[in-house]
Each structure stands twice: as C-alpha cells, then as structure tokens.
Amino acid sequence: MRTGVDLAARTARDTIKDRVPGLAAEAALFTLISLPALILVVLGSLGFVADALGPEGADELDRLVFELPRTFFSERTYEAYADIARTVVENGRADVVSVGLLLSLWTGSRAVNRILETVSIAYDVTPRPGWRRRLVALGLTVAGLVGAVAVLPMLVLGPRIVRLVAPETVAEASLSVLSVLYWPTLGLLVLAALATLYHLGVPWRTPWHRDLPGAVLAMAVWFAASGVLRAYLALAGQDDQVYQRLGTPIAVVLWLYVSAVALLLGAELNAEIEKRWPTRETLRRSSPRPHEE
Signal peptide location in the record (predicted)? Predict the structure, then answer.
C-alpha cells in the first residue's frame, strides 16, 4: 500500500516538474493542426471502401461524414464542406489522399515528435538526436494513419461489420459472440498500441511488458475524461443550438488536450517504475563509465 502511494506521489511530483500540462498542450496543438489533413486522407479513402461495406455500411459512413459535422459547422460552412466531401466520398480521390497524406505526415509527426521528446524528459535521459527522433516520429505517424484508416469502419459499424463482409450464415453465427468480445478486443489492441508507443519512445529498449502500467493509466484517464466531457456536453447543450455549435469545437480541443495529458501521464508512471525497479539495461546506462570515475 505504501509503495503504491509513494509511486503515485512521485509520479504526480515529476508530472509537475516535467511540465506535462504545458507539453501536452503543445502536442495537442500539433495534433489539432494535423486534423484537416487527416480528414482529407479519411474522406479520400472512404470512396474506395464504401462500396465494399454495402448499403448499410455506406449509410453509417454518410452519417459520420455529413451528419456529425452539421452539429458544429455554420450553415454556410457546412454547405461548402458538404459539397467537397460528397464529391470526394462518392468518387474516391487518390489525389486528395496523396495531398492529405503528405500534410498529415508533416503535421502529425510534429505532434509525435513532441511526445517522444517528453517521454525522454520523463525518464530523465538525453533525448535521441533530432534527426533520429523525427524518423521514429515519422514511422509512428505512418503506422497510426494506416491503423486509423483500417480501424475507422470497425469503429463506426462495430460488430455489424461482420454482417456486411462475411457470408450470411457465418455472420449470424458469429455476431452474438463478437458482440461480447468486440469492444474488449478493441480495448486490448489500443492498450498494446500505447505500450508499443512507450516502448519505442525511450532511447533504449526496456521489456515491452514494463510499459503496460503506463498504458493502462493512460487508457483509464482517457476514458474517464472522455466520459466527463460527453456528459457535460449532453447536459449543457440539450436545448441550446447555439451552445451546441460552440461547444462541440471546444470539446474537440479539450479532448485532444486530455488525450495528450493521459498519454504523458502514462509515460511518467512508466518512468517512475523504471527508476524504482530498474532493469539491467537501465542500470548499465546509469552506471558511471570508467573515465567518469
């Protein structure tokens, strides 16, 4: 019990000392800047996958692309957005995907680069050289974009995607099982992705399982904060259309910031665990060199 309290206290102290709230704001800003380019990539890709999902899947994707933006765009802005989005989604635009991909890689890698630098700060080690850190950030950004485009239909449709892509007999037999296992499996995949990000973020390699506590903390903070934001928007904007239009963009910014804070809190926890129970590699790197004695 005392060990857990001490670990939590040290994590909180180093979170303040390492300026995690400010660094999270920087990462959230770069992520926000990358969103328009990411939207271009997603919109350009949906035209290629909508037909494969069938009528029901296409209806769900239309709701995602056209109905949700209506809640926070002004009428004139929404009309301009809808005209462009409809053209891109209906036809599938490789040129839009290419331009959006380049822009999102440039802006998204800036956010990932900031996160990698913060992970090094949390571990109290010298960050990788700038060019190496940017290469790692670029690789993680590419992996994230590929994963986002691949996972988006599953997030939108949930277990129903099996009914759309599998034979009817297989779909009916497995749908009930998938309804139970779908979200836990998706949660485990996100947990593994977070642990991998922490694993690659440190300038040296720690055992992968040592990064799981931080991933669990990041997911817990993220789920809790997302639930609070969703409840606040649902209660505060029930009968106020003006507030709904203003509140949704604010909620997006806050959600990005909270996500960055959760990610960096997980890194701080992993760093404290590594300092308290160091691995052999950590001890080797922290021990003085012969010429330093």
Answer: none
